[in-house]
Design goal:
The protein contains eleven helices and eleven strands. By secondary structure, the chain is an alpha+beta fold. The strands form four sheets. A three-stranded antiparallel sheet has the order 4-3-8. Strand 3 and strand 4 form a beta hairpin. Helix 5 runs antiparallel to helix 7.
Length: 445
């Protein structure tokens, strides 16, 4: 007789890990492979789109801060400036391209543009945006001056065997190719082919946030959460008899809100008397709640999001007052947004100069991000203790002067001259009453 197992058991691994992308060359292809199956950028797009609400909110707010307010036009722009800004022969205006660049710079730490030259390579005629996930470096690229370097473009790298990628020369006026690629990647020590994303230390946490959401979703949809086991020791009946008994008990003793709240079983033994065994409630949901807090914290850290409410992320006990938001924005603007804006501005200014724009008089400059928060009270008061603390933080290197200047002008609403005088004030180490406050603006003659 065939010996059948009375039950089966499957062990499910709860471990998860996202490895760093493989970057390599092969003898068959002329491009440098980025990630498993050459699809790491698509993986980054996937985790942005579907994996983590926290990660997606932060990315979107970063883009708004960097390019959401568009490019600041001169008061009386030249025709060359307007031609470049409107990009009439391209498919997007410079405002739209700046937002696209900001997304790619934030998600991939790089971006690609497709400038087109006129007949004699003296002027750019249009600029197109190329999604960064479509671009791969040529494996023969070298650092020697005077030699061209190339990139490969494909709309779908998973189909490169059936759809040949296109090869383009990197942007350089001396090459005759009319359609070129301006390829920018954020520089990190030791990286050659592709950039390292800023949030790479938190990719495991971003993936874990999706796993937690999937766990709760599965618990809702498939949550067979039995409350008790009812066992009959009268012998094991046929499948049909078990099904009929189950349906009879369910129809008589359970309602729609209590469906699937019991397990019905039969066994040989216990003198035929039915036994009722309570099943302990699973408490893993509480563990997931604690893990969810840790995950959110780690994602915020890797994005340098020092003021979570500024990114739409709430934290217990932190309401995000007007002063906190303005101070958080001022610091983040100085430490993160300004450098990103400069990257975009530098590259667009290069292109604008090849479109005839006098960038010394009409530089391409992104607008500063602003948030409209109703002022329910008066302007925050700068206490003498706050002033001393700020100057001490500058002296010890905890706060840079530019950020402090932004705090004084944007949050405490001092004019630029007064703010600079405050920062240049020398304060003695004499004992100071910490409760002393300056009830009105500090006046420095």
């Amino acid at each position: 007789m065939e010996n059948k197992s009375n039950f089966g058991m499957k062990i499910i691994s709860m471990e998860f890990s996202v490895e760093k992308p493989i970057i390599k060359t092969t003898g068959q292809q002329d491009w440098v492979i980025w990630g498993e199956d050459n699809k790491y950028p698509q993986f980054l797009l996937d985790i942005y789109s579907t994996k983590s609400i926290t990660h997606k909110q932060i990315i979107q707010r970063k883009v708004q801060m960097i390019a959401g307010n568009g490019i600041e036009k001169p008061s009386n722009p030249s025709q060359e400036y307007l031609n470049f800004f409107e990009n009439r022969y391209g498919d997007m205006s410079m405002d739209e391209i700046a937002v696209k660049i900001a997304y790619d710079l934030t998600i991939f730490n790089g971006f690609t543009l497709n400038p087109h030259w006129n007949v004699d390579n003296t002027c750019l005629t249009r600029i197109c945006y190329i999604p960064f996930e479509r671009v791969r470096q040529d494996k023969y690229n070298v650092d020697n001056e005077g030699l061209p370097t190339y990139v490969w473009i494909s709309e779908n790298w998973s189909k490169w065997r059936s759809i040949d990628p296109d090869k383009y020369v990197k942007f350089n006026q001396k090459w005759n190719d009319k359609s070129q690629m301006l390829y920018y990647m954020g520089m990190d020590q030791g990286l050659k082919w592709y950039p390292e994303v800023e949030y790479s230390p938190a990719i495991n946490y971003i993936d874990a946030e999706w796993e937690i959401g999937n766990y709760h979703n599965s618990a809702i949809k498939n949550g067979f959460h039995a409350g008790f086991l009812l066992n009959f020791g009268t012998g094991i009946p046929t499948e049909e008899e078990m099904e009929r008994a189950y349906e009879d008990i369910r129809a008589k003793f359970t309602g729609s809100n209590n469906a699937n709240k019991f397990i019905l079983a039969w066994s040989n033994g216990n003198d035929g008397a039915p036994t009722l065994t309570p099943i302990p409630t699973d408490t893993s949901d509480k563990q997931y709640m604690e893990l969810d807090k840790l995950i959110t914290s780690k994602i915020l850290q890797t994005h340098q999001a020092i003021c979570p409410p500024l990114f739409g992320v709430s934290e217990p006990g932190q309401l995000g007052t007007r002063t906190e938001l303005l101070e958080g924005l001022a610091i983040y603007q100085s430490q993160y947004v300004n450098p990103k804006q400069k990257i975009i501005e530098d590259q667009l200014n290069i292109l604008a100069s090849y479109c005839g724009v006098d960038i010394s008089k009409e530089p391409i400059k992104l607008k500063k991000y602003e948030i409209d928060i109703p002022d329910v009270g008066s302007t925050p008061i700068l206490s003498l203790g706050d002033m001393i603390t700020m100057l001490e933080a500058i002296r010890t290197g905890q706060l840079d002067t530019q950020t402090a200047l932004i705090l004084l002008t944007d949050v405490y609403e001092y004019d630029d001259v007064t703010a600079k005088k405050i920062l240049n004030t020398q304060i003695s180490k004499a004992p100071v009453n910490p409760t002393t406050e300056i009830p009105t603006k500090i006046s420095i003659k």
